[in-house]
Predict the 3D structure of the following.
Amino acid sequence: MDKCELEKLSDERYLLEPMDIFVTYQSAADWLNNNQGVLGLLIFVFTLLLGWVSGIFSALRRKPKFKINLIDGPTYCCTYLTGKSHRDYEVHRTGIVLYLSIANVSSSASRIERISVGYHWHLRPFSSLWMRNTLGWFWLTDQAIALEDFQVRIGKSIKVYPFLIQRNNLSPVENKTYLEVGSATSGVVYFEQADSWGGCFPSIQNGQVKVKVKIEDVFGRSHLMIAWIPAVSFEDACKFNPSFGKTLANLHRQPLSTEQI
């Protein structure tokens, strides 16, 4: 093939390429004109999917999220004898007090609905109770009503710690359980485990008890925190509250031993 023929083919190719592009655009335009219903349906479905995905992310951002911390003050655990016995075991109870700070760090307001505390029992393996409450957590889901305010004497004054849920006797502080975005609240929560025996009490390691705090909001969402708190004697427990450990005893009108396990 000589030089003239090559130049002729090259010129024809350059002439055909714009024509091919025009034919392609024309075909696409014809298809769109003939299938406007299908195109509209595709756009509608895509819009729905985009809105659905956007709604999911928006809902995730609006879910309440509480940040839980412990504050210096009356935070400890004490297991004490009741003076009763069950078969060959001495009956004991456990009291737990937590001074909590709770902040709403989400973009949605919510209310504190329930506060629970869990810990590991001091049981030997390998019973079902050991698997459930030593490997797992034993939960106190209902707070006990403290008979007196938690307090401490500082010089000639007395500092009263506010309760988070129940009302104080010595302080007019209002309980705050509804948390707006960016707001926080703090206060004392108190629990008593009912009559128990054997190793059904919190396991202690180096003078500390591992606890899990669970706060449920009004929407049913759980917010968790795990911490170590001191295990103290009954005498030390009563320094913040002379009626520590006596709620169930007074409720059942039973005498209470002050001997610690």
